[in-house]
TrEMBL record:
This protein's name: Glutathione-dependent reductase
Site feature Lowers pKa of active site Cys, where: Y236, Y279
InterPro entries: Glutathione-S-Trfase_C-like, Glutathione-S-Trfase_C_sf, Glutathione_S-Trfase, Glutathione_S-Trfase_N, GST_Omega-like_C, GST_Omega/GSH, Thioredoxin-like_sf
Listed GO CC annotations: cytoplasm
UniProt domain GST C-terminal: residue ranges: 155-282
Chain sites annotated for binding glutathione: W80
CDD domains reported for this sequence: GST_C_Omega_like
Segments for region (Disordered): 309-329
Endpoints of the signal sequence: none
Length: 329
């Protein structure tokens, strides 16, 4: 299976951000109005960008309004695939590859076949794969279909601060780990490494005296940071050479991420087995053998975190989503 290459010789890693920016809105100004049952979110537990949408969909209770299709943890250079489903075909869209939905939108689509993607079930075509906008629109455009007690993840009075924090976290942390892992020169790696850990130190300092990144409740900012931190010890520390120290050796961030992990919507949307399988099997230019490490021991994710002493209310005036029967993995 050809997984493709993720590095360009002698150049720093640059993420392809040419996304399909069509939006699903209440007024339908892009031709796609909010309509329950019309759209299918295609995601993967392996992918941090996609897991954000899984978490937000669950926190807001959009399960009945937007169906969820899950790709398997591995893919080839062409596309994510539905190998978790019977016969390897998505049961709603009837396709074996996410690429098929992109081609239904744009024949011969030449940009990245990425998750998350939202597909218009009727046409079978991708509407958007703009991961940063998808969760914001879940929070603001789909509000009529939020569950009773849904939290305010992007409250109006905190949006400017959330946006500022998100910009730093994306540049230095979310994308920073990839800039380390996919660096093709020592110079590029060294610069990325320094920027990543400066970003993590900045976040840690911010979280010393407050339970959440912005305000006293969980917001969009916490969702975005969590999916990177959750992958740090299992993947980024070794596989991406982000090894100044493990997350479990950074007291503030380790307590913070366990606090979120133990909050409904976060830990039950995290599948460590699929995360490890994805990175170590797909990135063959980094890990040619495809061997997936057995460690680290993840049982300590359920240990007491003590962050409740800082105050704050996870869901504000809202409530937690109903528990799932079992964790994702």
């Amino acid at each position: 299976m050809d997984q493709g290459s993720y590095r360009t010789a002698d150049k720093p890693y640059e993420r392809d951000t040419r996304y399909i920016e069509t939006r699903i809105t209440r007024d339908g100004r892009d031709g796609y109005p909010v309509e329950p049952g019309r759209y299918r979110l295609i995601a993967a537990y392996a992918c941090p960008w996609a897991t954000r949408t899984i978490i937000v969909r669950r926190l807001l209770g959009l399960d009945d309004a937007i169906s969820l299709g899950l790709c398997g943890p591995t893919h080839d250079s062409r596309s994510w695939t539905f190998d978790l489903d019977p016969d390897g075909v998505d049961p709603v869209l009837g396709i074996p590859r996410l690429q098929d939905a992109y081609f239904a939108r744009t024949p011969g689509y030449s940009k990245g076949i990425t998750v998350p993607a939202i597909v218009d079930v009727g046409s079978g075509a991708v509407v958007t794969n703009d991961f940063a906008q998808i969760t914001i629109d879940f929070e603001l455009e789909w509000v009529d279909f939020h569950r009773p007690g849904a939290p305010q993840l992007y409250p109006e009075d905190l949006r400017a601060e959330i946006d500022e924090v998100n910009a730093v976290v994306y540049r230095d942390v979310n994308n920073g780990v990839y800039r380390c892992g996919f660096a093709s020169s020592q110079q590029a790696y060294d610069a990325a490494y320094d920027q990543l850990f400066a970003g993590l130190d900045w976040v840690s300092e911010r979280l010393k005296g407050q339970r959440y990144l912005v305000g006293d409740t969980i917001t969009e900012a916490d969702v975005r940071l969590f999916t990177t931190l959750a992958r740090f010890d299992p993947v980024y520390h070794g596989h991406f050479k982000c090894n100044r120290e493990k997350l479990s050796e950074m007291p503030v961030l380790w307590a913070y991420v366990r606090d979120l992990f133990q909050t409904p919507g976060f830990g039950d949307s995290t599948n460590f087995a699929q995360i490890k399988q994805h990175y170590y099997e797909v990135h063959r230019d980094i890990n040619p053998s495809g061997i997936v490490p057995k460690g680290p021991d993840l049982r300590n994710w359920f240990s007491p975190h003590g962050r409740e002493k800082l105050g704050g209310r996870p869901f504000g005036a809202g409530t937690a989503p109903d528990p799932l029967p079992t964790p994702a993995g």
